[in-house]
Amino acid sequence: MTEPTQTTIIRATDTALLKQDMSARAGVIESTIDALLPPTKGGDARLIDAMRYATLGGGKRLRGYLAVTAASLFGVPESQSARVAASVEMLHAYSLVHDDLPAMDDDDMRRGQPSTHRKFDEATAILAGDALQTRAFEILAAAHTHASADVRIDLIQSFAEASGAAGMVGGQMIDMEGEGRALPLDEVRHLHALKTGCLIRYSAEAGAILGQASADLRKRLRAYGANIGAAFQIADDVLDATATAEELGKTAGKDEASGKSTFVALLGIDGARNEAARVTEAAIAELAPFGAQADRLRDLAYYVIERRN
Question: Which domain of life is it from (predicted)?
Answer without folding.
Answer: Bacteria
